[in-house]
Amino acid sequence: MLKSLFRLSALSLIMMGANTLAQTHAAPSPAAAAEYTKFKTQNRGEILLETGALLSFEVTNRETRGEVEIITARLLDPYAVTDTNYRNLIVTLTPKTGDLVAFAETTEGHFDFNPTGDATRLWRKSTPPPKLDDIHHPKAARSTKSAKTASPTAAPLILGEKDASGRYVVDVFIGFSTAAASSQYVRNNLEATAQSYIEQVNSALKNSKVENVYLRLVGTGTSPNNPGVVTSVLSDVNTWFAADIERTAPDLVGMVQMPTDDPDSAGGWAGVGGDTHVIGAPWPYAYRHEVGHNVGGVHCPDGSGYHFGHTLGEGRGTIQCGNDLAYYSSPLIKDEQGNVLGDAQNSDMARKWRERAAEMSANRIHKIPFPGDTNTSITLQAEDYTSFYDTTSGNAGGAYRQDNVDIQTTTDTDGGHNVGWIASGEWLAYKANIPSAGKYLVSYRVASLNTIGRIQFEKQGGSPVYGVIDVPVTGGWQNWTTISHEVDLAAGEQHVALAIKAGNFNLNWIKIEKVAASLGIYRLQNVWLPTQFIHIENGALEAGNVPPGYWSSQWDITPVTGTSFMRLTNRWKPEQVLTVNNGTLTATSAAKTDTNSHWELEKVTADEYRLKNRALPTQYIHNQYGSLQVGSIQPGWWSARWKLVPMQ
To answer: How many Å from the N-terminal Cα to the C-terminal Cα in the chain?
Structure first.
């Protein structure tokens, strides 16, 4: 096992110690401002390294994420690989501040951008850490209660998360210690710096022809804690940023520290197969290496598998073995001399990435919509109609607009206004851009003192009629509830209308959400007793040994639209869903909005889940006492763990 990838001279160690001092966010030098303009306006140009080398660049992609423009480019290094798809220059621009963050990879080493330097010192060579890292395997404790082993009958389900392009999305949150954030390496440019780290990995994936997955930055933050680049950070980061993690639901959590004198300090650390990583601010190129450990990669080959990097010697190693080239090892990639950068048996990190993409993207259910996410909801505020018909003149509520629709201030959650005094025969129309044709869940936020109302949802003009729904009595004009029904809608911009068939209710908003597609048909296999599958073969819900072909033991798993919960519908009797009825687990009919029939697939290991009820969040499905039931559990119970075995 490779214990140390890089060593420092004594002078370098002194320089590293000096770099731990916090830096102020000084204004960029005139030369740095000119460099910013160059990358903002040109797709071709040159950069001058502090070593004196002048290298040409060609921009290959520009993309804006948030307030940052991300540029990937190819340096025309005469001694580097000549693959026209190779990306080894990453630049992030922040137009609001005029700041530039950059990372360049050359045959002379790694260089980052120094915004305070003169024209000859803009591109400074990175000093390597005394040690990049050792191999760190997170401890995985398993309770022995209900512990029995058996081989699964088929490959279990891994619920990966894909965007509209069909690629898996690994969401990442990156935290910075305040010392790192204010250092000369970050200069309080958190988003731009974090995006440059993310782009390191994404560019390397593209270089390595890994096309089914990418990383996405979902947030950044700061913490006063700076113990150094040490392994304790890998667990502590979850505490330091607990609120941010809850808000952004990242699959991976990264941390940036300033180096300290701790004897275990390194350039970076990450648990092999884990979901956290840490790097030192002076060594941005360590980021892609540590994420490689999270994927399951190690260092240079030792003959024990393909999850290793690859080296050609003399400073030409892939990311996990030397970290000189922006490649994850692959037998499908060659350098300019025809040397293969991997081996199918010993060094194929590209394969490891492809295989673990689904699992890594499923560490948490995403909360921030994916680009092009067709499940993103459309919310129409009731008072923001485009046209209307009202049976009375004037605005009885006197708020927001002065026409004949009656609008008042609401006390509902999030405040705002609601339409009130709604009468039979009236209608309200709204413009909506439906992203794709299909089935949609339309929800209405309503309140009614003592009268049942009725809404007809239709295309403006009255045809076609999409659906009709009754408004229940809620016991007060500001006692709000949400009602929903499913309708079929065409794609494109259109005007929809609410025709009131029975009035005397208030309306706050309308929400239109694409009904989530089924994840497929699966059998639910118990981990403790692997011959037992949840089924209804004999009428009642139970766990037992039934043949794989029996539809009574097969369940259609479908996301509950607009949530992270699932409904499990029996394939044999599709009117029956797994639900909790008066405290008892059963398979019976249940409305799609019934939260007793909603389940969270709580991930335990890479391929094991607990099924937690939405309405009763302390209740899990288990067979701890010999029969299938729902109730409170102990975390270590294998009887409450299930593998989701796909049916072809």
So the answer is: 41
